[in-house]
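Example 3.2
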Amino acid sequence: MKDSELGRAFADGDVIFREGEKGETMYVIQSGRVKIKKHSESGEITLATLTNGDIFGEMALFDRMPRSATAVASGNATILSIDKKKLFTTISRDPTMVFKVLETMSQRIRMLDEELSRLKKTREHLLQTCCDVEETCEMILQEAKKTIAAENGSVMLCDSDNTLDIKAAFGGKSTQLMKLKVGEGIAGDVLSTGRSEMLNNVSTDGRYKKGSTKIISMLCAPLKCDNRVFGVINLSNTSERLFLLEDLRMLNSLAVYASIAVKNALNYAELRVAADSVLKQAILVT
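Structure, written as tokens:
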């Protein structure tokens, strides 16, 4: 790293700050790019790529909490660091700086508000869904595609023989034919543990079962009700596109309402079968 007249020069891969470190400084990108990364069980995930003029790490000036992510230079970059004292000095010389900080924070708050609004609409839509199981699963996938960029997807439900069977799918045909036992494959393991998974390199995971379509990254969230897991939602990519932690969080939120909708559809299907059986018996008696 070399100090320049304005900011500090970082080479490709240099760490600006690490997740978990104490933060008392914000940063402004004068040139180059910075990747914001976060550690997960499947490795480091890139949350965002920032460029010239972008501000990051600004919350450290207000809450002094540990860094929630790691910032790494992507290529050569020049970064200006600003602590609270320097911020006030900079604002006295250039009041536009405070507007830039507020704009950055406002954009993030706006994104959270928009996400909350989308989730509320999704909840209302799913809870008013029809009672056909396959149609309900199709609708769930449509909602997932609206909020999460994915090339393939499926909803799998557990049958009476403890086999995960695909009820709705889009993308690669091979995924539509696959059946898994409880504990088998990544989806089967999620069914067994009830914990969501995000993998951006499935080939390194021993649980992954290969199909005719080569999958690179995958999200999987459980469908559960009354602490019983009865299915999963899968999203995957065959390209180099990676999933973000934000995608996993969105899928988890969707899965809550999807579980209620699917469970209602399953209960209705069982009642319909029982009603048909009673009617048939009544006809035989008469």
